[in-house]
Amino acid sequence: MTPLVLAMPGNEAMAGQLALALGVELGMATVRRFPDGESYVRVESAVQGRPVVIVCTLDRPDDKLIPLLLLAAAARENGAADVGLVAPYLAYMRQDVRFHPGETVSAQHFATWLSRGFDWLATVDPHLHRIADLSQVYAIPTRRVHAASAVAAWLRAHVTRPVLVGPDEESGQWVADVAQRAEAPLVVLCKIRKGDRDVEVSVPDVDRWRDYTPVLVDDIVSTGRTMIETIGHLRRAGMAAPICIAIHAVFSGSAARELESAGAGRVVSCDTVVHPSNAISIAHDLASAVCELLQIPRT
Ligand code: R5P
């Protein structure tokens, strides 16, 4: 039976691109709130015997989780052969350890809830730091799409003489991959996070890169503090206004505006979270991951 793609609200564009790339039908589902704030879901397309692929990026996850799990349950109860999740951005991966007594490892709980609701998961560059692999927390098959080749292709087409800058050691893994693919030099800085919005970044020898276009790459831009702090250092050292690339444009509150005011030359992101800065499409890479999980040939 041919797979069916369903979009959670706000994910229509990605779901449409995915269905097109997979050569399968984009189905219909109703997801809305009752007046009391509870969720109502209904699968409108025929799912009997078919693999169902639900697309839901998971920034601002707390509002999305209940209707998402309900939609997966509705698909399953209406006869879907299996139900997979494409979450271009996977939430809660940063709370991967108990930092202080009394806390919990949210990453583990979130993974448990999704593993109970879905048969498999495809995502883009999840924040793997103290958790080395998704299989440590997810009990279902997973595929990680790497944005590096799409980001490197964008860089080659749009930026002359880039020097890739990773704002912290955690970003090293993504930035090194992008730098290698774009055949560009690389600098990884050192960050100390003192609070949610209090970040200090040390900048080593930037003199060497004065004639290059600095390109900051980070997996997640949330408050923007990491990038803003780094921009400040680079500008004070006399470097050009950097291009800021976010794999996941989470951008809480006024972060995008603050980033521009801080002196970002341009802010660019992958389309894993819908945002005006989206310029790099990940749909084709996600489609390949879905084909692997569904064991169907890539069209
Ligand atoms: C760190 O763990 C991540 O790789 C990002 O550097 C971080 O999430 C960025 O957060 P913010 O934009 O709030 O500084």
Describe the structure in your own words.
- Pfam families: Pribosyltran, Pribosyltran_N.
- Its EC number is 2.7.6.1.
- InterPro entries: Pribosyltran_N, PRTase-like, PRTase_dom, Rib-P_diPkinase.
- Belongs to the ribose-phosphate pyrophosphokinase family.
- The protein is globular.
- The strands form 4 sheets. The protein has a 6-stranded parallel β-sheet, sandwiched between helices. A 6-stranded parallel β-sheet has the order 10-9-13-14-15-16, with helices on both faces.
- The longest helix has 17 residues, at 61-77.
- Helix 2 links the parallel strand 5 and strand 6 (82-87).
- The protein is an alpha/beta fold and 299 residues long.
- It folds into 2 domains: 4-146 and 282-294, Rossmann fold (3-Layer(aba) Sandwich); 148-280, 3-Layer(aba) Sandwich (Rossmann fold), CATH 3.40.50.2020.
- Helix 4 packs across helix 5.
- 31% of the residues lie in helices and 26% in strands.
- The structure holds ribose-5-phosphate.
- Residues 94, 167-168, 170-171, 199, 218-226 line the site of ribose-5-phosphate.
Please write out the topology.
Elements: E1 4-7, H1 12-22, E2 25-26, E3 29-33, E4 39-43, E5 51-55, H2 61-77, E6 82-87, H3 106-117, E7 120-124, E8 142-145, H4 148-158, E9 162-166, H5 172-182, E10 186-188, E11 190-195, E12 198-202, E13 213-221, H6 225-236, E14 243-249, H7 255-261, E15 266-270, E16 278-280, H8 283-294
Parallel strand pairs: 1-2, 1-5, 5-6, 6-7, 7-8, 9-10, 9-13, 13-14, 14-15, 15-16
Antiparallel strand pairs: 3-4, 11-12
Helix pairs in contact: 1-8, 4-5
The structure holds ribose-5-phosphate.
Family: Belongs to the ribose-phosphate pyrophosphokinase family.
Domain Ribose-phosphate pyrophosphokinase N-terminal: 5-115
Keywords: Nucleotide biosynthesis, Transferase
